[in-house]
Amino acid sequence: MSAALKAAPEAIVPRFTPLHPVLAARCDGLDLRQPLTPAQAQAVEAAMDRFAVLVFRDQRIDDEQQLAFGRNFGAVEAVPSLVDQARRRLPDNQVNDISNLGADGKLLAADDRRRMYNLGNMLWHSDSSFKPTPAKYSMLHARVIPPSGGETEFADMRAAWDALPEAMQAQLRDLVAEHSLIYSRAQLGFDDFTPEEQAKCTPVPQRLVRRHMGSGRVGLYLAAHIGGIQGMPRPEALMLVRELTEFATQRQFVYSHTWAVGDMVLWDNRCTMHRGRPYADKTYPRDMRRVTLSDVSPTLEQPR
């Protein structure tokens, strides 16, 4: 056991090792089964402001411990999946089931409505951008993983903004986009929503460019959930969003995480996008649990 882990919990100072030139770091020295001290929580949040994505390896935590960790940094969303709530696998609505498993623990059928809906996680997006107050942090914990595939990629929207020409920055700075789950699933041809589910998908406005509160840096706020831009014809708006997404997800802005059981990855939705990558989901189980924290206010109410 390392000297850091032998020390009293309150004396442990987390260490951060960069994993990519512009975002992501590994955090060593913390056992997330133990409560964080105020100083440790402050160190993690400061690292998030810098790196936007933190990787905690070999964390053998349960749902309650994951929730307790998240509460160090804000209010936990109640974030059940939109479709088929009567067939939900996990009992706690604050823990989101990012898996290919049904309530019976078996693999979802190839044509299962939940599987079709979950394919949207492979589009570039920011969690809960379709809610009036979107997400601050998300944290995904790996319980069971397939032998290959299923990576998660993260793109730094601040670095992408910095790389845009000044003329393009000026064009984008005041734009407001409309976000809805209906828009992202429509890209995949999924329109199998009940009237009750559709009623929960009213588009919400979000700034296309926002200032990150923790770092003070400006970044794009993009997601597959965007279906229009206020004051702009829809085809023109969607073409602009596509061009920006292609620009912002170039390899120099992207960190790809290959999962191991026990990994817990924490990311900042205010300044990143992410997407899941394919795996043999009709053959192998994948059990991931996500906890999401709410931001403090709608983006239109935040400082520009």
Please sum up the structure shown.
The chain is α+β, with helices and mostly antiparallel strands and 304 residues long. The protein is built from nine helices and 15 strands.
Topology:
Blueprint: H1 3-6, E1 15-18, E2 25-28, H2 38-51, E3 53-56, H3 63-70, E4 96-99, H4 113-118, E5 135-144, E6 152-156, H5 157-163, H6 166-172, E7 176-179, H7 181-186, H8 195-199, E8 204-207, E9 209-211, E10 218-220, E11 226-229, H9 234-248, E12 254-257, E13 264-268, E14 272-276, E15 287-294
Parallel strand pairs: 2-3
Antiparallel strand pairs: 1-2, 3-13, 4-15, 5-13, 5-15, 6-12, 6-14, 7-8, 7-11, 9-10
What does this entry look like structurally?
This protein has 304 residues and is α+β, with helices and mostly antiparallel strands. It contains 9 helices and 15 strands. Helix content is 24%, strand content 23%.
Shape: globular
Mean pLDDT, all residues: 94
Assign the CATH class. Answer: Alpha Beta
Q: How helix-rich are the residues, as a percent range?
A: 10-25%
Structural class: alpha+beta
Number of extended strands: 15
Give the full name of the CATH homologous superfamily: Clavaminate synthase-like
